[in-house]
Amino acid sequence: MDEGRDVVFVSYSHADRPWLDRLQVLLAPLVRNKRLVLWADPFLQVGEDWHRGLSRAIDRAGSAVLLVSADFLASRFIMEEELPALVARGVPLAPVLVRECLWDYEPVLQRVQWAHDPGRDGPLDRGGDSPSERDGRLVRVCRSLIGMVEASAPPEMESTPPRTGASVAETLVSSVRPGAVDGAPPLPPGYVVREDLNPLLAAVVKTETGAVGVTGNAAALGLHGQGGIGKSVLASAVAWDERVRAYFPDGVFWVTVGERADVVAVQVDLLVRLGRSGVEVRSAGEGLRLLREILAQRRVLLVVDDVWSEADAAAFRATGPQGRVLYTSRDERVLGGVGARVQQVEVLPEAAARQLLARISGTTVDALPLEAGPVMTATGRVPLALALVGAAIRGGMSWPRLAAELQRGKETFLDHPYANTFKAMQVATAALSAPLRDAYINLAVYPPDTAIPIQAITSFWGGTPDAVRADLNALAQAELLRLVDDQVTFHDLQHDYLVLQAEDLAVLHGDLLAGYRRLLPDGGRDGWWQLPPDEPYIWNHLIRHLRMAGSRADMQATVTDAAFLACRIAYHGTHAVEADLNIATEAIPDASSVASLRRWLGRHAHLFTDLAIDDVATTLLCWLDDADSIVATGRLRLFLPPHHLHARWGLSPLPEASLRTLAGHSGWVRAVAFSPDGQLLASAGDDGAVLLWDPTTGERRARLTGHPDGAAGVAFSPDGRLLAIAGNDATVSLWDPTTGEQRARLTGHTHWVKGVAFSPDGQLLATAGDGAEVLLWDLATGNQQARLSGHAGHVNGVAFSPDGRLLASAGHDGIVLLWELTSVNQHTRLVQHIGGVNAVAFSPDGHLVASAGSDGTVLLWNPIIGERPVRLTGHTAWVNAVAFSPDGRLLASAGHDGTVLLWNPNTSEQLARMGGHTGAVNAVAFSPDGGLLAGSSDDYTVSLWNPTAREEHARSARHSGRVRAVAFSPDGQLLASAPAGTGTGVSLWDPTTGEQLATLNGHFSGVNAAAFNSDGRLLATAGNDATVFLWDPTTGEPQARLARHTGAVNAVAFSPDGRLLATAGRTDTAVLLWDPTTGERAARLTGHTAWVNAVAFSSDGRLLATAGNDVTVLLWDPTTGERRARLDGHTRAVNAVAFSPDCRLLASTGFDGATLLWDSATGKRRARLPGHGAALNGLAFSPDGRLLATVGEEGTVVLWDIDLEAVVNRLPLGQPLQSVTWAGSRIAVAGLSVIMLEI
């Protein structure tokens, strides 16, 4: 048996789901004790691909349980795909006959050993059996199954010290103010102080690791994972203890996780309780990062109850040096995985057990009868079981009857690990009245480890709230549930017992849904979106209940209903929608609309952060426009505000090959690299940050900040234990990617470091930079081993050959040098590029070297002979990066033209063009399995593609490059756009059709601004070439060239009468006024002390506003040149100004992210509109002056109501936006393309 085959796979038909649930209750603890994992498709993680997850489970399967029935045999998927895959893998099969069928006609089932004799024993489902008879059969089948799968148990592995990345714990100091307790359950009735308490209190306060774990004592119980032993009660005693709370004045916070909980939902709830609401959390890693940010300086105790996996435990290892985490778990290995100091809890000593039994039964220890001894033996002195039988005595059951009932339970549950508690549950439920017993068992419909509001149970049970509350109080008195703060909770063993007893869970789920349909205005005919927004339970569990009720059509219709989608995103975030779609995909894997929507959401989820319902609807309508077959977007009009934005042209859809867009950088992203195991993706940006991502879920796992001037390269070591970062500060830093700790910093370069690469054996690191040299470092010592000189300019990239014998370096001098590392001599010079070489890569077999050139080509070289390379042409600008797939069958090249091309390196055939970026693509990397391709871009994002999709992404001339500015003609019939960066041509567009009408060429560098005069007969453009051109927009001919600035010109504006033209200088910090008729300079306005970024005339021409990097706005009399006012209020550079059409207001905005409204007559500030969360670059008033549009680096267009000073609508466009202009109902924005919107 392979060491990794640790899964007991369960194959079943969804019609037999109740039997899967019952089997899981009884089999899971037996399997867990053998260090195995029970797996069925409902156990897929949120966000996990259904087919991939199933295939991975089959690959790990050491044995398989088959729940055989007529539906099992009729399932095409089971019989044609799942079962043959298990057989092909040689997985031992253990069939169980659930319902009568013609199993003996199936050859596979004839050849294998069954878990029971189907001919003699018959099926599990006999009909008419009592629950105890059915449970007895299940227990016997489970005992047989565990014997069959026992050989699958993997060998005991030596544990390694965990690396959690958590803060080092500091000594705690007691405070006079005890912390408040948030979420911890009260101590139960009859609570007995345990001997374990004081050692645990001391451990929490004094532990060196910052984490303490409580688990059942394996030696005392004979197995790991025992439930009901009192771990949670003990943790609750710690949480409420005044002595402990004095050490945590910032509070004690309790969360319950559970076996299959939505960990992200638990994190979000905790974030809200900690004061951080309204955040979008899409993954456990992202949630952990936010929790660590909040808790870093707080003195808190976080109690994490009932964790079942190391991953779930790690998701809450979030406290800072003055905080602690207390875990409870059935599995000691889970606690060790997060570095917790383990405290084991044993069953109660006999004296404590007698005390607990006496208190709950309503007597004294001395008054306990002789039967109490056998009762304690029968319950194993497990606290939960003792509480249940004690409550039965208190409720009127006699001691002899109690002893007899427990004996009958023993005959049913035999020696099952949970027999003690299940016997007590059987006794406790038998003591209930028949109606209350039935109502209680019906609570099995709710998911485990979930607090259920009384309001939800009232809807399900019916009756009055007072009657429901009375029944729940009676059940709480019987110790069958907990009722705290109007919420019902179960111990998970209580819930397991209910699942065993429930007759037909599908009917129960249908009944629960019927209760909620009564809340809908039309009984649900128009869909579930009409649920009350504040309904406390059903939103997060609706899709599960629909699935469990067998309502697949309703489930599919709901998750693809645009109205439900909008509500769900707005109320609960995209993570909640992804969880819904995961459930639906698992239940209906062949539903193409569900699968398509799930893929679409993965690509677009980054757009929906912190949006109100009307903004979510606006965004969905805009971005789903090209995917209308997925959902009916007309339903979104239910939520659209009176003023809302919609894209007319220019917004490129994200291509199907695009799997996710990772947004988190605030500058150009220069490099990407996958870890060797494919579990992490690193991206390095000009913002100085290196972000670590989970490439499967898109979650951000960590942010590494060590190069404030920017990071240009990243690489993982071959063993994944080190991450090297190349910095613009002339240093290279080495990090532990698991803990996020910096391990070393290498200094030796004198300029930017652009590239890093590890040798295949991990012993050397090569670094390249602007200093024309390649440095080799010995990683064992951190010493510089060699300095390779040979390039005549800076070195852009380095790569080792697969055997480690050669090192290739790519130079700005147009040369690729190959170095023989055994002698550190130059081996070969590869010279064929016309211009610089930006990157280099070896094929996996070492037979090819690919080089990326500024000449727009990729060259493929034989590294041995180094002559006559194959030239690949397809990019329209510089090629910035190249990467081979792990199998060598694909070569990816990244271009300054915003595309990634895929090639067959053997035939030189171009296979695909991957789109999705709206700026230059700077780097590419394949995942180790070749299933993902990552690209990083100037648009501040990282894209993940499916490299096998072979998608040719449609491109348009109007999306050919980044745009700096846009301007409408006065009649709105023309739109001018100014290209940024190296672009020189000013484009004229038809605003209605998006047709490009003309290109005006005259500038020889980037163009920063454009403006029409009042009659539309002149167009002024300002450029980095220190000139202003005046154009006839009808003929496209230049009318004048104004050149009196001493540096770049940032802005232009005509006066309303057309007699003046104002231009803003960058390095000369001056504003020049021109006569546009003669081209003569009329005045020079000086007053700014830094770049001038914006100019604007009032509509009456009496005022000129200017704004600059000196954080001021100046008001001038353009006739006299006199400065009228200085407006102070911004804290960073001011990028844009605009007057309202009636001249009464002036709006200004800038890098501080705020928009300020000023009274233009008095210069006093009228209002401050809160920022977008990033720098703002442009603003424009509506023609009637009632609305204001603002745009900025985070890529959202925001409409404001000026009178209300409130947001009217938000539309995320997913790209940095530089400028905005307004004409009639049209709004044009400039970013990485020209986008036309309509309001």
From TrEMBL:
UniProt keywords (A-Z) are: Repeat, WD repeat
Q: In terms of domain of life, where is this protein from?
A: Bacteria
Protein name as catalogued: WD40 repeat protein
Task: Give the Pfam families listed for this entry.
Answer: NB-ARC, TIR_2, WD40
Q: Where is the composition biased (Basic and acidic residues)?
A: 117-135
Q: Where do the WD repeats lie?
A: 662-703, 704-745, 746-787, 788-829, 830-862, 872-913, 914-946, 1000-1041, 1042-1084, 1085-1126, 1127-1168, 1169-1210
Q: Please list the residue ranges annotated as the NB-ARC domain.
A: 219-359
The Gene Ontology biological process annotation of the record reads:
signal transduction
GO annotation, cellular component aspect:
cytosol
* Listed SUPFAM superfamilies: P-loop containing nucleoside triphosphate hydrolases, Quinoprotein alcohol dehydrogenase-like, Toll/Interleukin receptor TIR domain, WD40 repeat-like
Asked whether the keyword Repeat is assigned, the reply is yes
Q: Where is this region: Disordered?
A: 116-135
Q: Tell me which species this is from.
A: Paractinoplanes tereljensis
The molecular function GO annotations come to: ADP binding
Domain TIR residues, every copy: 8-115
Extract the CDD domains matched here: WD40 (cd00200)
